[in-house]
Design brief:
Number of strands: 10
Number of domains: 2
Strand content: over 45%
Distance between the termini: 37 Å
Order of helices and strands: EHEEEEHEEEEE
Radius of gyration: 21 Å
């Protein structure tokens, strides 16, 4: 894990009790039940006053590796997960020789990652489009 405290010297920050930005990075860490995750958090406008610390803004990014995703699916037999950067999807193959193949589009919804199928095929033949549509309710 590494931490950075902005561009000003730390002594100046200590005297003013204000830190413009704090960045914490934890590569290849364990987060909840997910292993081998790269996590970075940035806190901006950190201020200490009268025994209280306030933070104006906080953001975090968590990157799950292909190995992490595959590990979460390892309870299922014959499952592989492969990113397709060109299409911006995850390709999930299930069954012997990838019998079922699903391309999943990921999007952030609040604090949850939603996966929506963008296409699917069985034995290499495309599934009807309604099979890959989600209802507006999810």
């Amino acid at each position: 894990m590494t931490a950075g405290i902005g561009a000003k010297p730390a002594l100046v920050d200590a005297v003013t009790r204000r830190i413009p930005a704090v960045t914490i990075s934890a590569p290849s860490t364990t987060l909840c039940q997910l292993q081998d995750v790269d996590a970075t958090a940035t806190l901006t406008g950190v201020r200490r006053s009268r025994g209280t610390t306030t933070i104006q803004h906080a953001s975090a990014s968590i990157v799950l590796t292909q190995r992490t995703l595959a590990g979460r699916l390892s309870n299922y037999q014959n499952v592989t997960v492969t990113p397709d950067p060109g299409a911006g999807t995850l390709v999930i193959r299930l069954g012997p020789a990838g019998l079922l193949q699903v391309h999943e589009q990921a999007r952030l919804d609040g604090d949850t990652i939603q996966l929506s199928p963008s296409s699917a095929s069985v034995l290499g033949r495309p599934c009807p489009r309604p099979w890959t549509r989600r209802s507006p309710a999810g």
